[in-house]
Amino acid sequence: MHPLIISTLIILLLIAAWQDIRYYRIPNILVFPGAIIGVLLNTLLPQEMGAFGLLTSLAGLGVGLVVLLPLYLLRAMGAGDIKLMAMIGTFVGSTSMLIITLYILLAGGVLALGVALLRGRLSRLLENLKIMLLIRIAGSSMVSISASETFPESTGKLPYGVAITAGTLFYLATAHWVAA
């Protein structure tokens, strides 16, 4: 990957993480121009190992957009997080986006544990996890939750842009080491 592509992505990720920590929002003014920049850089800059190009960048945008969409639909993740994932996809392509997603989910788990510990909510987090596992083990056909029933109390908001940034930075670091 071209150094200008990597450095631009890193700057955008750090800004997104900072915004998410401060305001629990990742602004469109960051991700939309960032996605355009990702497409343009991959289309215009020479690549070391073959052409990355426009179509691969757009495919990365698509994968980034849909890979965590189920979490958004379950209201476990915000729209800004999904748009940030799409932006990252324009820089790295669709194949890399799948690997990055694994790193992001792992970083998100570590972040959730850390935040729960800092807020003194670890027992609530573990209780919620137990309930989710029991529902999964019982199977959806055996468990019925009506609209009037409430789910357990949340452990609080999580700036998931931090996990997205950490997972992507880990990928960039390890991809560079493996390629070297």
Overall pLDDT, averaged? 86
Rg, nearest Å: 18 Å
Low-confidence stretches: none
Query: Which oligomeric form is depicted?
Result: single chain
Assign the structural class, choosing from mainly alpha, mainly beta, alpha/beta, alpha+beta, or little secondary structure: mainly alpha
Biggest sheet character: none
Number of separate structural domains: 2
Provide a concise account of the structure shown.
With 180 residues, the chain is mainly alpha-helical. The chain is built from 8 helices and no strands. InterPro entries: Prepilin_IV_endopep_pep, Prepilin_peptidase/N-MTase.
Notes on the protein architecture:
One of its GO terms (biological process) is signal peptide processing. GO terms for molecular function: aspartic-type endopeptidase activity. One of its GO terms (cellular component) is plasma membrane. The protein is 74% helix and 0% strand. Helix 5 packs parallel to helix 8 and helix 6 (94-118) packs across helix 8. The chain has helices at 3-23, 28-44, 53-66, 69-73, 79-92, 94-118, 122-138, 160-179. The longest helix has 25 residues, at 94-118. The protein contains 8 helices and no strands. The chain has 2 domains: 3-119 and 159-179; 120-155, no CATH class. It is elongated and about 50 Å long. By secondary structure, the chain is mainly α.
